[in-house]
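User: Continuing from earlier, I have the next pair ready.

Assistant: Great, send them over.

User: Here they are, in order.

Assistant: Folding the first of the pair now:
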Amino acid sequence: MTELGAGQTRPPGRVSKPPPGLYLVATPIGNLGDITLRALDVLASADLVACEDTRMTGKLMTLLGLSAPLTPYHDHNAEQARPALLARLRDGAVVALVSDAGTPLVSDPGWRLVRACIDAGLKVTTVPGASSTLAALQLSGLPADRFLFGGFLPRQANARRAALRDLRAVPATLILLESPNRLADSLADMAAVLGSREAAVARELTKLHEEVVRGDLFALANRYAESGAPKGEVVVVIAPPSEAAPLTDDDVDQRLRVAVDGGASVKDAAALVAAESGFPRRDVYARALRLFRMGNA
């Protein structure tokens, strides 16, 4: 595999300039060979390339032998930058919108620019290609006929668990992004809230050290708690809810251990597991006291 930065270039052929408008151009997520011929043509012809980070996109453009002007467009400047982009488009420019890697608009502010273009009657075209979320879904081995992309979960544990509770009943495979440094804690919360669902942790997709680790959420939480934070971008894919049998006492014990290992007090762990399992809080707390006083955790 050829990763970005490996020094291979692939200059575009000679093509006619596309019609004016906004082009949503997918870029490689790691392997330079995943750039499409159409993306090369659009980027070569663009009057302006709007990007999250001009340094990242500048590196990609250099590798591809391209030299279109770049302008930043990201969460922090979108409101100020959008009017200038719309003005260029009204003047008949070809503007390409890219993210740092993968498909634009997925976890970035590009959709507001698209909406503004639609409202103004300006042409918007997609140039599809690489996507870490779809790549992870493909490699997960989990149902792909119905899925929900949930983006990044909140950083704080309470907010993260609340977000997971909102997703718990969704009858679809879940796709979530996560920071490597928060992965173990997030997996522990996923296990506590969602139960022992099958899941996959995908990282470094399309790169030399691509890895997909599969297992139930409890096993994955324990694995990354022991091994520490992995390297690279991380996508977590979680199976949809099943009509599984009610939780057993062993299931409750396992959830209690995951919650306590994640930093919760015995009392808080019992409250969390009771809320997620539907068992009486008093019974779960009594079980937690027996479990941890007996030293079986």
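And the other member of the pair:
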Amino acid sequence: MTDKLSLEGLNFQATKLNIANNVLTLTLNRPEKKNALNNVMMNEINYALAYAKQERSIRVVIIAAEGDVFCAGADLNRKQEESNVPRIEGSDDISMSIRHLYKPVICKIQGSVHAGALLMVTNCTHAIAVENAKFSAPEILRGVWPHMVMAGLFRVMPKRAGLDFCMRGQAIDAKKAEEWGLINESVPNDQLDERVDSLASDLANLAPGTMQFGLEAYVNQDGMNFDEALPYLGKKSAETFAGPDAQEGISAFLEKREPKWD
């Protein structure tokens, strides 16, 4: 990406954006369509994530949703909305955009999650859901298979649990999703806002450069075998200690004060 991205003059049709306290909240905003993912929504999500990656002042992203359903997966209706949000060349996949953001991304799940919506949940760093949310990969019931979902699913869920989840297409509740690692935790409906805001605040107040550097290293080592990963991570550890965040953090500790992150 060579040109600096801007939100100036852009009319987001399928999503809403809000930036406050170093946190960008991206809200899926097609509640009448159960927030089904169409081309406009996917493009707006990818653009917003690329903007968040570009802006150093944005330290955390929250993906939230309007309505009773977090997201019903792909929109099978070919009729599309209009949007002036530009398409970023080479940025088509939500999973890749989230995974390569290298910043904390919290899925704030206020309702049920189905099919392709799992692309967001499985690739975010954190997922907090209300207790009555349901989760499903129902593709097999329609004679298809959640191929793309598997890449993220089997990085958070035990293999046999994940296979059963895909093979039968049956929904699980938030308690089971938490047990299987699909989400971090489930909370009562009236506690979702407070829990997500608290988590976002905690993450936003940590060393932003080191956070980004560490998450990039995490993603890179995830595809390596142990003998490759260990020396790679040793090199990254040395680079982190030489970086400005570590220098500030160590100085603050020695001087018994709170660190000041740039």
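Worth noting for the second one:
Residues 15-204 form a domain with the 2-enoyl-CoA Hydratase; Chain A, domain 1 fold (CATH 3.90.226.10). The CA atoms of residues 26 and 110 lie 14 Å apart.
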